[in-house]
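# nightly structure sweep
# worker-07 picked up a monomer target from the shared queue
# config: single-sequence mode, recycle default, output format = structure tokens
# input follows
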Amino acid sequence: MAATTRRAVLTGFGVLSPIGNTPAAFWQNLLDDKSGVRTIQNFDSSSLPCRIGGEVPDFVAKNLIDKSYRKALNAMSRPVQMGTIGSQFAMQDAGLAKGSLPPERFGIEFASVMAATELDDFARAGKLSTNCVPRNINMADWGGKGLKEIPPLWMLKYLPNMPACHVTILYDAQGPSNTLISGETAGVLCFAEAVRIIRRNLADFMLGLRSTYALSNILVAEMQQSMHFAYLQDDWRVNDRLTFNLGMRYEFATPWTEASNSLSNYDAQARTMVQIGRAHV
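# output follows
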């Protein structure tokens, strides 16, 4: 669809960050070179090698989210809560409320990634699957005992499109809805895509947000792979009018391995996790 000459303007800002939860405070702290990195307060970090982080201070989701949507917090991870509440702040800053825009002309554009699982969701499962040896997990116990302890809504809490889903429900936005997951570039692409949607006359208002938050990350993998390449080329001149340019390329890549031999897969027939390196793998 061809773009029109419609203009797009910024009408509101929403921010949740370690250096301010309002546009004015955030901007002023940037100008003042104020750092948001401080000693971690959300959990006991005394046993960790690094005990500092960029936390959003005094963030209590139930005190900030719209009261009509408070029950949905049980299905949100902290990153999703921040994305949803950040959208509220943007709407408030723009002077807009639910019902103030035609639903079919109200779109959502989020920049997000798969959220890092909060430690509490895996704590009970991890306790049943470890033997107190660092980085050593009994994958059979993980599949047989641990998986039963993971909350049923675990995956839905962390999917990258969940902030957009919750915001569309909260504000009854029935226009275009999209989530970009292109890492560090997602925020810029989110803004550009929202502008394009408006210029194509597919929406009159786009709520576009970058929503990513991760203070704890339990995914630690030391993946290894070797790749070898060889290439030979030569010209074979048959006569003044015919020359063959010949080449041969060879590539070899070893299978992926993990430094601590922690790779595993799920055996659907045995209904258990099978760890690499065992006799039957």
